[in-house]
Design brief:
Helix content: 55-70%
CATH superfamily of the largest domain: ABC transporter type 1, transmembrane domain
Bound molecules: adenosine-5'-diphosphate, magnesium ion
CATH class of the largest domain: Mainly Alpha
Largest sheet: 6 strands, mixed
Shape: elongated
Length: 592
Amino acid sequence: MQTLSRIIKLTVSGNKTLLISTYIATFISGIALLLQPYLIGLVIDQVVESLNRGESVHVNQILQSTSLIFITGLIRGIAVYCQSYLSEKLAQKLAYTMRNKFYDHVQHMDFKFHDEFHTGNLMSRAITDVEAMRMFVIGAMIRGPYFILLFSVVSIILLYNDLLLGIIAMSFMPVIGIMSSYTRLKLSSIWKIVQEQLAHLSVILQENLTGMKVVKSFNAQQHEVKKFDLESFYISKSMIRATKIQTRNSSALEFLYILSTGLVVVIGAYKIIEGDLTAGQLAQFVFYLGVLAIPVRWIGMLVNNIARTVSAGTRLFDVLDKKSEVQELKSPIILKKPQGEITFKNVTFGYTETKQAIKNISFKIEPGETVAFLGSPGSGKSTIAQLIPRFYEIKEGQIQIDGLDIKSLSLKSLRNNIGIVRQSPTLFPVSISENIAYQDIDSNQSEIEKAAKIAQIHNYIKTLPNAYQTIVNEDGSNLSGGQKQRIMIARTILHNPAILLLDDSTSSVDATTEENIINAMKKVMENRTSIIITHRLNTIKNADRLIIFHEGEIAEEGTHNKLIKSNGLYKEIYNLQMIADEKNKDIIESLQ
Ligand code: ADP
Ligand code: MG
């Protein structure tokens, strides 16, 4: 109920005039609808009475009486047009607000939120659930009061016109209402299953199409076709079942309607003979019966509509009510051009309550210093890199930039001064040029190329038929992992941030290219604070300092030479990698 009242409030707020106009149009169309059976009955009685009196009926006389029917018809047509247009407008306004609210909200959420809600899940909320809301406005909010009023008025008219006929006609209505509600609910559960089956089918399709080369090379076509066939068969089966229920229901409803009309006509005819009813009154009765069936059938739709809206609304508000843990102060400090000093003071952080990813970490990186992070996978290196731009909120300890707690800074200015290149690069399906200039859309071509040259990707881009204008495929498949990483590096170089975080950013390029990139970036790193996370020792030997992590804690810290001498964890890692490198060299030599 709370969900529904929130949706209603959202629809009403700021749209009062639109809502009232919609109701007025609906009301007018309802009155026109109610007038028609009455007028038709009048015309019939007029004709029958004239004939009974032995008078001849003049065409003009009929035309005069029927013109009122045409006029109400015209009014109804216009009112229905206005009602449909206005209610759709109202519904679209709500959908538009909800979509934007949702998108805006998701944009401003922290990473913890995105860990919890997966892309597909968020997409279905933004599209399907918003659509359910639109349907609610049209199907329940506007039509609800209208149909309830229509039902009440028609019931009164029927009972008032003839109590016996009224009771006979009305006695069918609960049956029709219950039947159509039951069918709708049953159908809705089948549609849910079909939706799940369709989602499953599309996963199979996607897996199969993207992995087509693998499927073919393993000769697995037969198996794949069978898998698809089975899922496709289930969908057809469910659809046929749904159609069966639907048609059975509509046939039964049709039968009930005809049965009630038939009964009314038989008893009505008898009453006409008895002189208790006129032919026009009976005609009115039959027409009103037709009008009554509209709101009664709608009850089924309403039940379904409300059930769907409550679940969709709950899912949407679930997201909208989630607050980002990362919150800005009311008047945050704008970080202009920082020196780039980074300080961690006893920082402890865990993605979940139960497990800490980093424990009591303290270090200080001087402005302009290049520090390399090293440690086994899962030792907390990336976590630290993600905490500096405040992607996650820490609850213990403090992180400072130039001595300022990052919690006191504006998020935009903080992130604007940090360039982060991750192991898994994210490119957008636009041109390479636009991808490089993603954060700096005003930069010119020569600046873009300069950045690409430093990132060692310029020469490759030049070989592409459309060079910098080449559009990156949606899944990035027209570039290798290493090329994508280098484009990301170019993006960061162009952005020219005071702090540079390279998180395994060269993991997908070969050792020589990595060395080339790092050498070229030496100049770039000269005047800025840089943290390089990598597992390749050759590339970090030249760092000013190394910090070695182990299970979320700092194990060792110092220059390469100092750490080699101290015979600790670093020495161990170093020796292991040297042995591995020697082995590789032997293998390569033996192949030559
Ligand atoms: P590293 O970069 O050194 O390989 P991470 O900082 O990525 O290590 O991970 C540190 C710990 O935090 C690991 O135990 C990892 O499983 C966990 N972790 C990392 N990212 C997440 C996340 N988004 N949600 C939950 N746990 C995470
Ligand atoms: Mg990592």
